[in-house]
C-alpha cells in the first residue's frame, strides 16, 4: 500500500451548496496510481462542511440551503455564541450536522462514486472566504 | 498493510431503517485476514444512507423513521426539487444528515463494534430499489 | 505503510459537549511515527457521539446542547422506544445526526486540524458513564 497527501485551497464561495468534485479530482493526480483504495477529504474549518449528494439538478442544492436554514435558523433566543454575527452559530451547527470529512472509494485509478453523486462544499457563512482542504489517498498500486 | 475491495448489492428494502450488519460481514470474508484495520462501507446513492445505532430493540428503528420524517417533512413549500415525487427531496436531505459512508475498526479479524451497535441501511424512498455498496477493508495481516 | 490501534476509555462526562482533543492525542503516542496518514476515532456506543467543532469559545458547546435539544426533544408523542428513560431515544437520534467516527489527517507526526478545530465528545445521556473509543492510525513512516 502507498499513501499520498496534499492540500487544496478552495476559492471563496457564496453562502450555499457548491459542487466541487472536479476541483478535488484535479488536485489529486495521484488517484491514477491507485488500484483500490480510499480518498479522504478533510475541511479544516468549523463553519463550512462537506457532503455528497445529487450532482445533476441544481435545485437540490437550492433546497439544501432552504432546509438547513429551517433546521438551524439564525437569531434563536437560546444562542449565546452571538458575537461573530448571526450566521456564525448556525454555521457551526450545520457543519456538525453535515460533517467535516468524506471518504470515497478509489477503484482502478478513479473515484468510485455513484452515477448521481457529487461532492458539495457547504458554505454556511455569508462571507466565509477561502476554505482549506487536506486530501489523503491510500491504496494498492496500479 | 494489505487492502481488499468488493461491492455488494443489497436487495430492495421498504422505506425505513434496516439492520444489515450480517449481510455486510458475509460479503467481507477478507475481514478474517486482518489483524488491525478499518472497514469502509460506502453507499453509491443520494437518497439512502448508512448509520450505526442500536441493534437490539426494533422500536429504535421505528422511531428513527418517525423522527427523521419530522425533521425533514414532505411537501414543504420551500422545496423546488419536486419532479421526482414528494419523497425525493426529503430523501436527499435525510441522506446528507445521516451520511453515506461508515468506517468501522477491525480487530483480530472481526468488526470491533460495541455490544449494542449495528449497521443500518436507511432507505428514504418509498420504492428505492436495490442499493449498491462499495466495501473496502485494509490493515495489517493476521 | 504501517498501522497502530489502541483503545481509550474516557471518564464519565455530564450530558453536553466536551473537548477531548488532548486526551485523544495523549492516547496516540504513535502519531509521532507517522509522516502522512489518518487517525480514525470510533466510539463504541449508540447514545454518545463524536464531532469536530470550535475549540475556543465554550459558548459554542453550550449552544450545541441547546440546539440539539430543540432538534431532538424529549417525550415526543411519536417515540415508542421509551423504556430506558426520556433521554434515551433522543440520545440515539442525536448520535446518528452527529456520527460515531472521525477521520483526521496526520501530517509530520501530528493531527493536521485547523486552527479552531477540536474534538468533541457529545454525551447525550444524563448518566452515560464511561465511554470507550477505538483509535486506529495508519500512514507512512517518518
Structure in words:
Three copies of one chain form a homotrimer. Chain A has 142 residues and is an alpha+beta fold. Chain A is built from three helices and eight strands. Chain A has helices at 21-27, 59-71, 88-98, and strands at 2-10, 16-19, 34-43, 48-54, 101-107, 110-111, 117-123, 131-141. In chain A, strand 5 (101-107) and strand 6 (110-111) form a beta hairpin. The mean pLDDT of chain A is 98. The interface between B and C is medium-sized, with 35 and 32 residues.
Binned, the helix content of chain A reads 10-25%
| Biggest β-sheet: strands ordered side by side in the sheet of chain A | 1-8-3-5-6
The secondary-structure class of chain A comes to alpha+beta
Q: Low-confidence runs of chain A (pLDDT<50, min 5 residues)?
A: none
The rounded Rg of chain A comes to 16 Å
Q: Terminal Cα separation of chain A, in Å?
A: 10 Å
Give average pLDDT of chain A, whole number: 98
**H/E series of chain A:** EEHEEHHEEEE
